[in-house]
Amino acid sequence: NHTNDLAGEVVLVTAGGTREALDPVRYIGNRSSGKMGYALAYAAQRRGARVILITAPTALHPPPNCEVVSVVTTGQMRDAVVSRLPEATMVIKAAAVADYRAISMADQKLKRSGPLTLQLEPTADILAEVASLRKPGTLVIGFAAETEDHLTHGRDKLLRKGADAIVLNDVSREGIGFDSDRNAATFLTKQTAIELPEMSKRDLADRILDEAIALRRPQSVI
Ligand code: PMT
What we know:
Blueprint lengths: L9 E6 L4 E2 L5 E2 L6 H12 L3 E6 L11 E4 L3 H11 L5 E4 L6 E3 L17 E3 L3 H8 L5 E8 L3 H12 L3 E6 L11 E7 L4 E8 H16 L6
Parallel strand pairs: 1-4, 1-6, 4-5, 6-9, 9-10
Antiparallel strand pairs: 2-3, 7-8, 10-11, 11-12
Helix pairs in contact: 1-5, 2-3
Ligand PMT binds next to helix 1, helix 3 and strand 9.
């Protein structure tokens, strides 16, 4: 029974896949549908939190009564997250962020003529910035989508980015992860790795919030 166990929390959720334009009609994007992030926003709100949903383009209807900030690029998502961060008591970064953008965007539609080489540069690392800028007590939970050695890469991301936890998805598995209604994950902290078996994204959202709340409790001495 989760009745109002997030009352008083302000949960900032990012969702969807950011897009980086190559020319006026094309972009670099990814397969994120936004379902995982929207499920988290919905569940957090149902459990009494005030929710700020910062979303890249999706085909979904946002949960009613949550504040929605629509963005397209990684830079816009970064600016929105940083500007709302002071209000947040919990940040959950379910968005799949474009890691690269074109060094210069073409003014006109690129013409097809032979091989094309694109020059890309890395985008801002929002999760790392949020972890360093947050005020004491704000929980920061990242996601990681991995296709190989997922525990090693997940642990590395947890430490490198300074998050309190990483929700690790093995996106090489059929039927879960990107665009699916179902997902499975490992909830990784510095001390623990909790397996969350395959279930609907709605149920997984509640399990992730359960684990997030548990992080607020003082650790028992072993
Ligand atoms: O949207 P769905 O279709 O429901 O799919 C859900 C999902 C698989 C997209 C989601 O559960 C997920 O795994 N999201 C994270 C995908 C991702 O970008 O992983 P990553 O390993 O590249 O990034 C790790 C973390 O850093 C993420 O929290 C990401 O938001 C953040 N990041 C990444 C790059 C960047 N430049 N800035 C960031 O903040």
